[in-house]
Amino acid sequence: MKKILICAVPFSDNLGDGVIAASLAHIAGLKYPDAKVEFLDIAGRHGFDEQNLRGGGAFGVFQKLPALLRSAIVFAYCLKNYFQRWRPHWKAAVSDADLVIVGGGQLFCDVALNFPAKLFLLSRLLRGKRVAVVSVGVTAKWSYWGKVLVGKFFKNAAPVFFATRDAESAKNLHDIFRIPRPDIRVVPDPALVCESAFSSELSPDKKWDVGICVSSLDALVMNSEYGESNAIGSADFFANLAEALQQEGARVLYFTNGAAEDNRVMAEISARPASAGAGAAETTFLVPKRPDDLVALISACSCIAAHRLHANIVAYSLNIPSVGMNWDKKVESFFRLTGRTQYLFDLSPRPDQLKASVLQLLREKNADRERLDVLQGEVIAGTHALI
After folding, report:
1. Who contacts 300 (Cβ-Cβ below 8 Å, separation ≥6)?
2. What is the reported pTM?
3. What is the CATH number of the domain that holds 276?
4. Which terminal residue of the chain, N or C, has fewer Cβ atoms less than 10 Å from its own Cβ?
């Protein structure tokens, strides 16, 4: 094995995707230490500083458009970029790959045909290559054209192995795309091994008692499998939670996963005058720029509270307790997998509910290392069996 190509969104501004890619590369390197591992970003990015469709103010207008029009815009955007920019780079990257890994992350989802269009276009270049679909999330909600495009991906790429990151995704892959269920393995999320993949980036000290991962609740609801959900304003929710914890003397870090829409919410919070109720407790605002920044920030917290799946996964990998807020089935699935559903709340619970749970975790520090070790072993062994 000379070259392994990982196709996903490793340079996404949502840095959890970069953590997945780096962790998957680390796992591949354990089996093939002499192989070259490269990344192909199916959104056409080559680095972390490139803008995307969500980065500008037009995204708010885009969200309000009818679903069919949003899908048409995204498909036209992908088609134009594929023929004008992406195809030569993708073709060169694929040409000498001995193995193409598609995964991990929530690549098999249909939000305005975003991933279906990109997977279909990529698959045009994968005919005849050895392809494995590894540790992907597969949603249950699909448009007609989304199913058509992903069906063409499977026909063109003809993967030799299939693995989803949870049993529900395996069921969806079988029910929707008719992949035989015995052919589908369940291999947990590669980011569960990020402790070893990012070992040199970990903080030796706990600088903050609680890390609050700020998210745009509106953006989360738009991408949720649960359909319409009600939430209070994003900035108010996180500011109220931080104030409740600061009143207990907690040192609070506001951070994001790097996504542009989340960063805007945190900028709104940081622009507010400091609340008198917060007392003298320390508050810090930090935006990670790279996946290693995200892992380092979380490693410097004693506990975190987060909606974002991979903030919770990174914390769990580092044996740091987390309180999750549930906005999608993939979050619920992860907390079930790790046996921590008692620390999973709804989309925007009352600050006093979250505060009590966070303070309990800070006292108990009850992360389950034994369960973590088992899951990390399953990730490595399961991935090695596929590649």
Report:
1. 203, 205, 206, 207, 208, 211, 253
2. 0.93
3. 3.40.50.2000
4. N
